[in-house]
């Protein structure tokens, strides 16, 4: 399996996030991608390639131009005002406030975010642009005939909406790749989001459409981030009705419970008969993940990959979460090896 990877991810390294009332070092850190890359090489998964540059056009298919302009220009505005600390939002257009787009940087930061978990740093734009190109390069490899590819994206993307950042995410790498498949002639794309957290951004981007089936297995949003989306009654709207499937699971879920949900998600995907599959590959379902509450063990990821392979679709794996840094490489690459071993 080809892996796509860019060193540019390193340019995004947020300093702090708010955890239980304290500012702690960001869990979403460069070492995550380093560990995954090291494991790809150790296991000789296949060639590792630099991404090509597809420009902004494919990003504009899933994100608004005003949001991309904001994201691209925010750091320059911030540093021109004499700042060097990470740019973090502190106020949002919540219920009973107006959804206006203010002039000020901080007003716009609140307008374009849903939490304070996505700091903008000097190199954030370059890193997130690079991650999107990594996803698009994996997409291109499959469009050119590969049966699978691994987009080793960092930072992750599945919480990012069309004009919304949050949950460590800025650009929705999986959505951008899915849209590129459609734009190149695919009729139906399925997205399987196995990250511990609900992929609220991906869901919202495709919620009213029937050309993308979105399925997600995640911590129950009644108790878990992102709290405000990811419930079972979110089944799609308009043309998208019946094309969104959320499978929330309780804290403590292990492979027996999780694999039953995977089976249900796979049956929906089989029924949809997609041309291609995009997997939002988060491994924060791991038992020792520091911010998550499922109990998958490393060998379970091999089984996960095997089941995904049995769907029989060309498959693009897009890296999302996973914060047990020492084990992230083994767990992520186990999914890929399980997938390959199934043939
Ligand atoms: C991103 B991805 C814990 C705060 C958690 C956000 C988690 C984002 C996960 N007190 N904040 O889906 O792995
Ligand atoms: Zn996650």
Automatic annotation (TrEMBL):
This protein's record includes keyword Nucleotide-binding: no
Gene source species: Stutzerimonas tarimensis
Listed PANTHER family: HISTONE DEACETYLASE 8, HISTONE DEACETYLASE HDAC1-RELATED
Name of the protein this chain belongs to: Histone deacetylase family protein
Pfam families: Hist_deacetyl
Keywords for the protein's UniProt record, in alphabetical order: Hydrolase, Metal-binding, Zinc
Cofactor needs: Zn(2+)
Domain Histone deacetylase stretches: 28-336
Family listed: Belongs to the histone deacetylase family.
